[in-house]
Amino acid sequence: MSLDSHIERVLWTKFQISKRVTEIASEITNDFTSISPPPVIVGVATGAFLFLADLVRQIQLPVSVDFIRAESYGSGTKSTGAPTISMDLKLNVEGKHVILVEDIVDTGSTLSSLIAHLKSKGASSVSVCSFLDKPARRKVHFELVGDGKYYLGFECPDHFVVGYGMDFAELYRNLPYIGVLKPEYYKQFDLS
Ligand code: 5GP
Ligand code: MG
Ligand code: MG
Q1: What residue stretches are annotated with the Phosphoribosyltransferase domain (predicted)?
Q2: Which of 119, 146, 155, 163 is in Cβ range 3.0-4.6 Å of 125 for a Cys bridge?
Q3: What pLDDT score was predicted for residue 81?
Q4: Which residue is catalytic, options 106, 133, 158, 167?
Q5: How far apart, in whole angstroms, are the C-alpha atoms of residue 71 and residue 55?
């Protein structure tokens, strides 16, 4: 049985994803081409790992890459409240242009704490590049820093999605597309 049989509905195929990633990478290349120093791409672990890997390989600038980790979700589909930074940057971002790469913006609370954190470290601008955004669920408004821009892959309907880096109970991150799980698989693994 293939892993695809766990998925009820595919929202974006790997071909649609790849096309959109190419477009975003070229926007970033154009926006930062005359800016010095080149941007620091900060992936929000773990969910952004595939999006970041695909994106940076198409950005035509010598960028730096680092990761940061913020935890707000338990093992299930419900938020556990205010996120904490559980793994900080290795690179010094003081005076740097940071592009935060996220898998999905939901309530906005993870992004707003990460942006505040990068601002406190002296980043001269903070942009956000999120693969998905669920505007219907926004609770916390986030503000970019300096000349920061907002890059978005797709607007996501209000469903819990998995794949392309995004998990359910730490599983399914390896799906090469974005989909909604069949209910029986949530029941099987939901530990919350
Ligand atoms: P926020 O702080 O904006 O509420 O939540 C952001 C984080 O929650 C995302 O980075 C992601 O890790 C997780 N999240 C939000 N919505 C979904 C979803 O539909 N599927 C998955 N797998 N994770 C989600
Ligand atoms: Mg995330
Ligand atoms: Mg998660």
Answers
A1: 17-168
A2: 146
A3: 67
A4: 106
A5: 23
Q: Is 107 in the pocket of ligand 1 (CB under 6 A)?
A: yes
Q: What is the CATH number of the domain that holds 172?
A: 3.40.50.2020
Give percent above pLDDT 70 in the chain: 93
pLDDT in tens, 172-182: 999 999 999 99
Instruction: For residue 133, tell me if it sits in a domain.
Output: yes
Asked whether residue 33 is domain-assigned, the answer is no
Calpha distance 136→29 (Å, rounded): 30
Does residue 29 have its Cβ closer than 6 Å to ligand 1? no
User: What is the best residue among 7, 42, 103, 132 to mutate for testing ligand 1's pocket, by most ligand atoms within 8 Å of CB?
Assistant: 103
Cis, peptide link before residue 46, omega less than 30° from 0: yes
Structure tokens that stand for 42 in this block: 């900060």
Q: What length is written for the chain?
A: 192
In total, how many domains does the chain have? 1
Active site residue 106: yes
- Count, in order, helices (H) and strands (E) of the chain: 4, 8
